[in-house]
Amino acid sequence: MNRNKKLGTNVLLMSISSFGSKLLTFFLVPLYTSYLTTTEYGISDLITTTTSLLAPVFTVSIGEAVMRYALEKEIDKQQVFRVGFITHIVGFLLLLCISPILLKIELLKPYYVFFILYYFTFTFYSMFSLFCRGIQKIGAFTISGIVQTVAMVITNIISLVVLHKGIYGYLLSYIVANVVGLFLLSILGKIYLYMKPGKIDINLAKEMLGYSIPMIPNSISWWISNSSDKYILTFLCGATVNGAYSVAYKIPTILSVCYSVFMSAWRLSAVDDFGSKETEKFYSTILTRMIKALTIMAAGIICFNKILAKFLYAKDFFSARVFVPVLVIAFLLHGLGEFYGSVYTSAKQTKMLLYSSLGGAIANIVLNFLMIPIWKGMGAAIATLISYGIVLFVRAVHSKKIMTIFIPKAEIGLSVALLLIMMIIQTIDFTGSFVISVCLLITIIILNKDIAILIFETVLKKKKRRL
User: Fold this and answer.
1) DSSP of 396-411, one letter per residue?
2) Spatial contact of 241 and 323, defined as CB atoms under 8 Å apart
3) Burial category of 319 from C-beta neighbours within 10 Å (exposed 0-12, middle 13-18, buried 19 and up)
4) Max Cα distance, the chain (Å)
5) b/e per residue, 384-403, with b = 16+ CB within 10 A?
6) Do 139 and 202 contact (CB within 8 A), yes or no?
7) Residue ranges with strand state E in 16-58
8) Segments in 109-199 forming alpha helices (H)
9) Residue 62: alpha-carbon gap to chain centroid
10) Per-residue pLDDT for 269 more than 70?
11) Are 357 and 333 contacting, i.e. CB atoms less than 8 angstroms apart?
12) pLDDT top residue among 78 and 241
C-alpha cells in the first residue's frame, strides 16, 4: 500500500470513529445548554480541563511513547504495553495521594469522587486507544469510538432529561462512556493478550520515558494556551462568564475534530521512510492540502456562525457566539502547529516541542491577564489566537533544520487574508455582514478550487459506494 493510500485509508477509518462520535456530541450541545446553567457548565468544564492538565503529568505522557514505539516492527509490543500500563497505575496512585487537595477548593469539593473516576477512565481509555493505533488495530479503535459515543449520548439523555441529575449526570455520562470504550478496546483490539504479567524491559522503559518525558512540559504548555484562560476568566469574572466562554468552544470544535482526525491518521504515516527527499515532498503536499482544506472549513464555520449559535445555544448561552470567529482562527493555527509538531515526533526530537509550546504558554498567560480585565471573554479568545500563532511561527521556522517543507505562500496568504477579514466582519456583526461573508466564502473556495473539488469528489464517491 503506497503512502497516500495508507494515509487515506487511516483517515477514512478514524473519520468514521472520531467525526461520527464528535458529530453526535456536537448535537448534544442544545441539551447541555437547556438542562445546565452557565455556572454548572463552567464548573463541569473546569473538571475536565483540570484532568487534561494533570493527565500528562501523572502519566508522564507515556501514551504518546506507547503509540510511537508500538509502530516499530522490531520492538516487542507486549513490553511496550506493559511499560505504558504500569506507568499509568503508578501515576494514578500518586494522584490519589495528593488529590485530597481538591477538597479544599469549594468549587470542586462536591464533585471529588466524579473527578477521580473521570481521571482514571479518561487516562486509561486514552492509552488503550493510542496502543490500538500503534498496533494498527484501526478497526477496533473505530468501532469502540462509535459505541462509546452512543453510550455517552444515552446516559446523557437519561441522566439530564429523565432523572434531572444536572451536573452529576453530565459527569457520570462521560465516566460510563469511558468504561464502555475501555471494554471494547480490550476485546476488539485483543489488548487482553498484552496484559500478561511479567518483567519490564528496563532499557525499553528508559527509552520510552526519554521520548515521553520531554513532552510533559509541551502538553502543559499546550494546556496553558488552550485552557488557562478559563481559570483566569473564572477567577476574574466568575464561573458564569466562563460557562458562556466554554460553550463557545463547541462550534470551533467542528474544525478541531477535522484536523485531529487527520493528525491521528497522519502520525501513523509520518514516520514511514522519514528523512528522505521523497518524505519532504510528501510532507509539503499534505501540508498544502491541509491548509487549503482547513481554510475552506474555517470560512464556512465563521460565515454560518450565527445560524449555528441559534441552533446550539439556549438561554444565556447565545451571547457566546461573539467569541466563535476568533476561536475558529485560533483552532486553525493550533492544527497547523500540530502538523509541524509531527516533524519533531517523527524525528524523535521532542525537546523543541517544549520550547515552542512554552513560548506560546507564557504569551497566553501574560495576554490573558492584560486583556481579560478589559474585554473579558473576547480578551481570552484573542490571547488564545496570538499564543497559537506564536507556536506555529516558531515551529514552522525551526523545523527547517530537520526538514524543508514547501507551500505556495502567495496563494495561501491571499486566502488567509480573506479569512481574517471575514473573522473581523462576523465579530462586529453589522447589517449586511452575512452577505459579505458569503461572498468572501465563495472567493476562498474558488481560490482553493483544487482541494474543494477533491473534497467534493471524495464525498461523492462515498455516497456512490453506499448506494
Assistant:
1) HHHGGGT------HHH
2) no
3) middle
4) 69
5) bbbbbbbbbbbbbeebeebb
6) no
7) none
8) 112-134, 138-156, 166-188
9) 18
10) no
11) no
12) 78
Burial (CB count within 10 angstroms: exposed 0-12, middle 13-18, buried 19+), residue 97: exposed
Residue 463 has pLDDT above 60, yes or no: no
d(CA 89, CA 92): 5
Range from 108-112, 163-167, 459-463 carrying the lowest mean pLDDT: 459-463
Other CB atoms within 10 Å distance of the CB of residue 413? 11
Residue pair 328/301 in contact (Cβ under 8 Å)? The answer is yes
Note whether 128 and 81 are within 8 A (CB): no
Nearest alpha carbon to residue 115 among 185, 174, 61, 56: 174
Q: What is the pLDDT of residue 119?
A: 94
Averaged pLDDT of the chain: 83
Strand, helix or coil at 197? coil
Name the packing angle between helices 112-134 and 62-70 (round to 10°).
Answer: 20
Q: How many helices (H) and strands (E) does the chain have?
A: 21, 0
The Cα–Cα gap between 91 and 119 comes to 11
**CA 233, CA 217: separation in Å to the nearest integer?**
23
CA–CA gap between residue 316 and residue 103 (Å, rounded): 30
* Amino acid (one-letter) located at 154: I
Give residue 15's pLDDT band: very low, low, confident or very high (50, 70, 90). low
Q: What is the pLDDT of residues 300-344, one digit of tens each?
A: 999 998 888 887 776 667 778 889 999 999 999 988 998 888 888
Q: How far is CA 260 from CA 18, 93, 207, 226, 263, in A?
A: 9, 30, 27, 15, 5
Q: Given this model, what pLDDT does residue 91 score?
A: 94
Average pLDDT over residues 225-252: 78
More reliable by pLDDT, 39 or 436: 436
Distance CA 409, CA 352 (A): 24
pLDDT in tens, 339-392: 888 888 777 777 777 788 888 889 999 999 999 998 888 999 999 999 999 999
Kindly report the CA angle at 259 between 461 and 390, in degrees rounded to 5? Answer: 150
**Alpha carbon of 250 to those of 30, 32, 134: distances in Å?**
11, 11, 29
3-state secondary structure of 200: coil
Of 46, 5, 460, residue with least CA distance to 240: 46
Give yes or no for a contact between 255 and 294, defined as CB atoms under 8 angstroms apart.
yes
